[in-house]
Each structure stands twice: as C-alpha cells, then as structure tokens.
C-alpha cells in the first residue's frame, strides 16, 4: 500500500507536519508537546490511519467505490479491537453477520428528503433517500476532497468534503467533515465535526431511528455477551434507547481487560441526539429522530430538521476509546474536558 503523505508529531523521530496553510519541518527529534507527540496520521490514496505510539487506533476508508466513508476499525492504545470486523473482514471467527451496512464507525442518515429530487420508486418507511442501508435505490456518500492534517498542542485533525448523492448521482447534500484524535485522561478522543449544507432548495432529515453517528461494537462485549450499555441516568438497552443525555457508554470485558467506547453529544449542538443503541452492538447518536422514530425523549415532537438553500447545520461529537471500567463521575468529567476543547475548525493555523 503506497504511502503518499504522513503527519508524525515527534515521537522520537524527525516529523513532518502538513498544515492547511502550508508545511513546516520539525527541526529536532521529539518536537511537540509531551504525549501529543505520540499521535500521528499516515495515508494512502483512499485511507487515513490514526496512530497512538505504534498502535493503529483507527482506519478511515474513503474510496469513491464505497457506499459511505467509514472507520473500518477502532482499537484501544494497547490493541484491543472495539469494533466488529464484519463486513469489511468476513473471516473473523465467531462474528455475527447481520446488518452488513454497519461498517465499523460512520455518519449518515436513513431518510434525507430534498426538494430537487423525487424517488422514482418508494422504499418502505423512507420518504427521500436512504443513506443508512445499502443496495439498489439507496444513496451514497462520496468523499471528493481530503485536506492536509493540522496539529496543535491538544492533538491532530484533518478535514474532508463529501457529497451525499441520490441513486441517480444527483448531489442533494454537501458535507464538510473534520476528524481528529486527542488525548484524554482515560483514553483517546476520536472527534467528529460535521457541517451539512443544501446545494439547492431545501433538505429535510426524515423522522427515522436509522441514524446517524454510529458504531458497531465488538460482539464480544455487547450487552448480549455481558457488556454494559449505560448513560448517566440508566443502564441497559431499555433504559438507554431513545433517551437524550450528553453521553452513552458501551463497555465490557475483552481478553482480560475492561474496554469501552463512549459517544459524547455536544450540548451546544443545535439539535440534540437520542440514543439508537442496542443490546446486539449498534451504538448510535441520532439528532434527527422524532415521534415517528419511537424515541421516548421525542414523544409528540413532529418538527423535523430542515435546511434551506444556503443554510448549514454544524454537529459535534466525540468517541472516547477507553481501557478501564469508568464510573458515571469519570465519564461526566471526560465530557466536560472534551466539550471545552476548541473546535477543529477553530484550531490555530500554525
């Protein structure tokens, strides 16, 4: 696999930091803040690989041949796999084979309704374009641009641009997506910043539970296999599903080690997420589901999110990749730590 670019922040090496405003060479070994210097990114044409020290943390695939960009895998700093391998890896022993559209970790929505496009064939329970499922009559999210990585004293990030295309290839939604990796007291924050805009006419996000920032956790620590799905107000799928809280954690025991993945929803997001998280391993923050989705926190709410032409919607989330059983107090503190970090779009340019 050919490497076309890399961003290495110190780590005992001479590092090249590629910045959106230009490039600068770190002039001495170990340059950069302690700890953060161990975070880096490497690249090939269609992949971004995130590293902590010598361990791969995430592998982000964005080939135009895919149905959507996604993290094909997520790992902890010591190498415990947090995500299911299927369908990207089909030969991992003992893995479930349901929901082949659950690709590691991803962002999309199951019903995007655009004024300028009418579906020739209706899909059940979908008014516009389904970007959640895959196959005939579904939409695709195509990465059309990848920027250069940016570094500051809290971590590293990169911007990409995506087009959300209807089955006839018409672009009905534009997206700027920032991905970042920063150190946390109890692990690593994988940060997702999403900006959505309509290229023409209005776009509505349909009232469906199928969305949006999602991860399929490793089968071996899902709730059915002894893992714990919880928020600050309850534990178990019945107490979590469809509720609105700042965080939702999925943790369990894996190869002799407590591990977990917590999703954080920034309280400043203009539309807050409800949790579409299940005992079989789906773990998702959905800011668009309303009454029809069945979310208890959205009972009787029927006003869907709409973007007029020229408007944009900015959403910010993080995933905490951790290697111990964290208490509610610890996760509340982690939430405050991340919420108070500057947005990647506001990071200093140099």
Question: How would you characterize this protein structure?
Answer:
Strands 10, 11, 12, 13, 14, 17, 18, 19 and 23 form a nine-stranded antiparallel beta sheet that branches. This protein has a five-stranded antiparallel beta sheet with strand order 1-4-5-6-7, with no helix packed on it. The chain has two helices and 23 strands. Strand 12 (155-165) and strand 13 form a beta hairpin. Residues 1-32 have low confidence and may be disordered. It is mainly β and 350 residues long. Helix content is 5%, strand content 40%. The chain has helices at 237-240, 328-339; strands at residues 5-8, 16-19, 22-25, 39-44, 47-52, 55-61, 70-74, 105-109, 112-114, 140-146, 150-152, 155-165, 171-184, 187-197, 203-205, 211-216, 228-230, 247-254, 257-265, 274-275, 282-286, 305-307, 312-322. It has a domain at 110-346. The longest helix is centred in the last third of the chain and has 12 residues, at 328-339.
Helix and strand layout, with pairings?
Blueprint: E1 5-8, E2 16-19, E3 22-25, E4 39-44, E5 47-52, E6 55-61, E7 70-74, E8 105-109, E9 112-114, E10 140-146, E11 150-152, E12 155-165, E13 171-184, E14 187-197, E15 203-205, E16 211-216, E17 228-230, H1 237-240, E18 247-254, E19 257-265, E20 274-275, E21 282-286, E22 305-307, E23 312-322, H2 328-339
Antiparallel strand pairs: 1-4, 2-3, 4-5, 5-6, 6-7, 8-16, 9-15, 10-12, 11-12, 12-13, 13-14, 14-23, 15-22, 16-21, 17-18, 18-19, 19-23, 20-21
